[in-house]
Amino acid sequence: MTSVPNRWLIAAAGVVMQIALGAVYAWSVFRIPLTRAYGWTIPQVTLAFTIAIFVLGFAAFGGGQWMRQAGPRRVALAAGVLYGLGVFLTSFAANRLWWLYLSYGLLAGIGLGLGYIVPVATLVKWFPDRRGMISGIAVAGFGAGALLTAPVATRLIAQVGAMKTFAILGAAYFVAVTAAACFMQNPPDGYRPPGWAPNAIEQKQRSLKSYTLQEALGTWQWYGLWMLLFLNVTAGIAIISQAAPMVQEMTGVTAAGAAGMVGIISIANGAGRFIWASLSDLIGRRWVFLMMFVVQAVMFAMLPSVRSFPVFTVMACVILLCYGGGFGTMPAFAADYFGAENVGSIYGLMLTAWGFAGVLGPTLIATLRQRTGQYDEALYMIAGLMLISAVIPMIVSAPTFDHHSSRQLPLKA
């Protein structure tokens, strides 16, 4: 009989993969060097990041579908090749904005999406006993990726320039993702951890049926979860896309200090994925999202008046805790509502919310900053959006399946 591999080793490889992929969150450290070197505007430089995140969402769906036939390892290997190559080719984008969009935005974005879905969809199958916690672990690395990349990239930019920095980072990403991909595999059919049975909370918040993608799309709950993810991402990714220049403008800190803050908030991003997701195992996914929206509404409303670097950093950390919490909690949310069997395609398609939010958030804040010369208007607007968003977690509920009428009925939580 074939031995079952250590599921914690697979989890560790998933974290390594996500750290390399999550380096995309250090993009803001390139904004000032690129605008100064090539005369590009803030929205033009931000658009490269926006394209990458937009493409990520759709590529994740494609990766989830591909995993059903090819398995997680092959998809992850393809992700490493495309992501590493895309970032490497960005090193040839000097004075060619279209090349920046094609290499970093499109090619690397496809690699990001293919790679992101693999650990998420794989680990919820290995850990049915700890869905929230393992979802948080699976994506914590992605949130923390900028912790390593931001200071390294800043130093490299100062020493060799932005374009050579892309070449160096692209090679490093290729090695890290493809090495971690070798550990990715699904558990045996019918796998259950020894001695585990669902507790009362797990039974209450989980669907009794394993849904196909088509069946999930036939429920209103799928669209409710999509909207929760979209709104939560919109707020956090707006901050991420402008973090380094924003803190420099609002507090007067140096570029090195701003890069340090990008690393610090990336810790919050990663920690939030684990903390909120683990909390959702105890109190339920809906209540976690409600709390995160309310907290963010308060933070964004207060942020325009902040001129202290430490205070700004603390508030940005709180926002990024919530941003990461959405990504940590949602894979378990989707697996609870629709089952883990097809979560790769069901949650993969849900990640298109990330793609659309990756357009709205950065575009909104970059455009308003360019037009008004400050960030205040955009921050107040996002605060209002978060307050309105708090309504959705109060109405979303798990679907149930009526075997007689084949209709989806709400289950009271």
Structure description:
The chain is an all-alpha fold and about 425 residues long. The protein has a single domain (about 5-185, about 210-400), classed as Up-down Bundle (Growth Hormone, Chain: A), CATH 1.20.1250. It is about 75% helix and about 0% strand. The chain is built from 17 helices and two strands. It has helices at about 5-20, 30-40, 40-70, 70-90, 95-125, 130-160, 160-180, 200-205, 215, 220-250, 255-285, 285-300, 310-340, 345-350, 350-370, 375-390, 390-395; strands spanning about 400, 410. Strands 1-2 form a two-stranded antiparallel sheet. Strand 1 (about 400) and strand 2 form a beta hairpin. Helix 5 (about 95-125) packs antiparallel against helix 14 and helix 15 (about 350-370) packs antiparallel against helix 16.
Strand content: under 5%
Tell me about the largest β-sheet.
Answer: 2 strands, antiparallel
CATH top level assignment: Mainly Alpha
Structural class call reads mainly alpha
Strand count: 2
Number of helices: 17
Cross-sheet strand order for the largest sheet: 1-2
CATH fold category name: Growth Hormone, Chain: A
Rounded to an integer in angstroms, the radius of gyration calculated over CA atoms is 20 Å
Unreliable segments (pLDDT under 50, ≥5 consecutive)?
403-413
Q: How many domain modules?
A: 1
CATH superfamily: MFS general substrate transporter like domains
Termini separation (Å)? 42 Å
| Overall residue-averaged pLDDT value | 87
Helix content: over 70%
Element-level helix/strand string: HHHHHHHHHHHHHHHHHEE
Shape: globular
CATH-scheme architecture: Up-down Bundle
